[in-house]
Every structure is written in structure tokens, then in C-alpha cells.
Write a structure and sequence with these properties.
Layout lengths: L3 H16 L8 H8 L3 H13 L3 E4 L5 E4 L8 H9 L23 H17 L2 H9 L10
Helix pairs in contact: 1-3, 1-4, 1-6, 4-5
């Protein structure tokens, strides 16, 4: 459902949240290596988040990325909509251009329910909650460190 860019954005923000230290940004190379994401591709994704004031970036040898806002106020839906667009939840499940309640595709009504549940989940979950789940051992992320 989400683009690779969106997946990388969510993973990177989670990584930054888990590895942030006071007044020290997390390096682009560290994020890319830990997640096995091509550096150039990750850089473009993160710059988009900087542009939308989700992340802050610092240049130089001690540069990197940090969260602009408190992760407890950072909802997953915002990140998904920045990267994949707000029309993500309006698209047809099988990619048809013409798909509506009036002219439904074969999975239209079932897919509407699934999209609504996913959108609700993303609008309720914060980056902070994900970090806490990982730190408490309730969830696992496999960064290659």
C-alpha cells in the first residue's frame, strides 16, 4: 500500500527517535547503513521531511537529522501523507482510474473498509508509541547494527 519511499521515511524516523541523543543529530550514513537503504535515495526522502518540518538537518562532520517536534505529537498519518500524498486513501485497490461507490471495482467495498482501518491506525499512532513499544520489547525492529 505504501511506497518504498514512505516505508523508508517511517523506518528512518523510528531509527532517529530510538537513537537520538540530546543535541546530537543522527547521521545520514548511520541511518542508511543500519537500514541498508541507498544513501542517495534516503537523502532525498529525508530532505522531503525536512522541507515539511518533520525533521531538522544539520550539515558538517557532526551533522545529521533530528526530530523537529516531540515524537508524542508526531502521528504516522502525517508522515505517510507527506511522502505518498493525501490521496493515497482515495485510490482504487487494483489501480483502476475509474472506481467509486457508483462504479466499483471487484474489491472496492472490502478495500474501503481496509483503507479506513489503516487510516484510523495511522491517525492514532505516534512515533513515540512505536519507540516505546520497541524499547519495552513489545515490538521488534531489525536494524542491521
Amino acid at each position: 500500500m505504501f511506497s518504498k519511499s514512505c516505508e523508508y521515511a517511517l523506518q528512518a524516523i523510528l531509527y532517529i527517535c530510538l537513537n537520538a541523543q540530546k543535541n546530537r543529530p543522527v547521521g545520514l550514513k548511520d541511518i542508511a547503513e543500519a537500514q541498508k537503504i541507498p544513501l542517495h535515495f534516503l537523502s532525498k526522502v529525508l530532505q522531503e521531511l525536512v522541507k515539511h518540518k518533520v525533521l531538522d538537518s544539520a550539515k558538517g562532520p557532526k551533522g545529521g537529522f533530528s526530530l523537529v517536534d516531540d515524537p508524542n505529537n508526531m502521528y504516522l498519518l502525517k508522515i505517510v501523507e507527506i511522502v505518498d500524498g493525501s490521496d493515497l486513501f482515495d485510490r482504487c485497490g487494483i489501480g483502476l482510474k475509474e472506481c467509486s461507490d457508483e462504479y466499483p471495482c471487484p474489491i472496492h467495498f472490502d478495500y474501503q473498509l481496509v483503507k479506513e482501518k489503516i487510516k484510523n491506525l495511522l491517525s492514532e499512532k505516534t512515533i513515540y508509541q512505536l519507540c516505546i513499544d520497541v524499547k519495552n520489547g513489545d515490538a521488534i525492529v531489525s536494524f542491521s547494527e
